[in-house]
């Protein structure tokens, strides 16, 4: 049955943009999202209290856009989309997917789940893949953002997640090391916490190739060369050990592998660090001393660290540094990946929308786990790991992957080298896309299914601090658009599996049954008014949740022996280096007013009025050499393709480095980016590509 709201005017809910997980009241009228206001009691908004950023406050207008998809579409024989009934569309999808599987095997089909939808919806997409289709190929876009973080933190600490809280720990640290995070623009409310604390005396050290907004507030900003983060991180560890500034008690009591790391970092002398990463020895030294002097340190990072051909190595080095200083398992300290999308922690990780892990990061190869799922689902999930997103596209190219079900993701714009990604999508026999707009990816589809968005949803999101929070609807999906969980359930029914859920609450009951770290999560608790969200691990209904992971005294790292692991890291070089032909280094990222591939924010006038088109930042020295003036259009070209964008001449970037935001289809940066991947996590190296610039002159 479809899930429709009775008239609801106001709902306390969770922001659908970034993973800070701000809470507010959202108003709706006649099915449309109207506006937001702070919650009455700041305790009900643990991450933000009363604050919200411009996206949270005004960004919901996209939900009312006239461009929303309102009916299912099927591509006809002439290649045009035609409106269809739900029955026609769903029957067609079911028979095409099954047809491909009958002919080419179960693994000829893959699913891509969304990090923007709810936990319940993400859980159902991976259940659909594993139970209904029986394919092992399930992944999501977290592959493109923090998969390297997860890989590194799982190896060193046990859980691939932020160790601490936003308010009480990040907001209260004595010092910060922030790298590869444009915090003020990507996680504005979190940045506000940090800035307040820095004003009150905390030390802020920022290492980044760009002098981003947060660097303006730093005690030390050090410009790094893109692609060489392992060098300066290992250099810091070397300095700390050499000057006896490491936490020997903690290391001996709670870790193993220190000697290997100690040996590894020997090569990263200050001179070597300067040669590789461009960090002057005096700056390396002052950063090391600031961090060593502080009682509690938070280490924060985002895509600048993760989106690298050695992203996992970067984060192993970051974790080694935190362990060297004993800065985990206590208030005001910890390793803090700033996760991107609203529900990337939950829907992109915890819910098992990953090729090698079931909900709660359980191992599909473990027979006991497999049996547990088989008892509830009636089918054992495939034991071996499936394809990661980039592998799905290359297998599609090869003709081995024939069908895809993509929910709320936009790989046609978000993948590196999008020409290649587009060809891969076109070479599929059948593509079904479930989304709220006609995205660049939906343009390639055979069937498009109109879905709902966060102001229209009931469910839960899990924010970057592992806090599961309720999401409530105050608006209705337009036209015939449906809730995502309803669509997936309808598809399952057509393929012979009657799930029979009447409400997302029932899905959460199944999640908590099967997922130990969510064992005590229930709508009853989330709605009781006392809990203010639950941070996992939350083992059972009496467990209060876990504010910060691990314990400085006891260790309690997520391994049988409770010890953290030092893992030596090495970086090597990026996949592409500047040369005579392409002498400049391109990096990419976000701006405050936009969101990911811009599908949502490019439809909001108020946001477009701030930044309405793509651009390229060029350092004044580079610009002078190239003969480029501010505000002139230039052609930026790589080995993959070229784009025309407006030049912004600024010393935010260093000489020889360019920056282009990732939010635009016209002037899409991913026409230029390269397909080198981190071997462990499969994350693409978006942050380093070699390019050249051709001035196009005034007008
Ligand atoms: Fe939403 Fe993030 Fe802004 Fe908070 S900081 S209002 S969660 S976009």
Question: How would you describe this protein?
Answer:
- The protein is α/β, with parallel strands linked by helices.
- It folds into three domains: 73-144 and 343-465 and 484-515, Rossmann fold (3-Layer(aba) Sandwich), CATH 3.40.50; 147-337, 3-Layer(aba) Sandwich (Dimethylsulfoxide Reductase, domain 2), CATH 3.40.228.10; 584-695, Beta Barrel (Barwin-like endoglucanases), CATH 2.40.40.
- It is built from 23 helices and 26 strands.
- Strands 5-4-16-15-14-6-7 form a seven-stranded mixed sheet, sandwiched between helices. It has a six-stranded mixed barrel with strand order 21-25-22-24-23-26.
- α4 crosses α13 (311-324) and α7 packs across α11 (281-293).
- The chain is globular, with a radius of gyration of 24 Å.
- Residues 1-5 have low confidence and may be disordered.
- Bound molecules: iron/sulfur cluster.
- This is Formate dehydrogenase alpha subunit.
- Keywords: 2Fe-2S, 4Fe-4S, Iron, Iron-sulfur, Metal-binding, Molybdenum, Oxidoreductase, Repeat.
- Its cofactor is [4Fe-4S] cluster; Mo-bis(molybdopterin guanine dinucleotide).
Compact summary:
This protein is an alpha/beta fold. It contains 23 helices and 26 strands. The strands form 6 sheets. The protein has a 7-stranded mixed β-sheet with strand order 5-4-16-15-14-6-7, with helices on both faces. It has a 6-stranded mixed β-barrel with strand order 21-25-22-24-23-26. Strands 10-9-8-12-13 form a 5-stranded parallel β-sheet.
Features:
699 residues, alpha/beta, Rossmann fold, Dimethylsulfoxide Reductase, domain 2, Barwin-like endoglucanases, seven-stranded mixed beta sheet, six-stranded mixed β-barrel, globular, disordered N terminus, binds iron/sulfur cluster
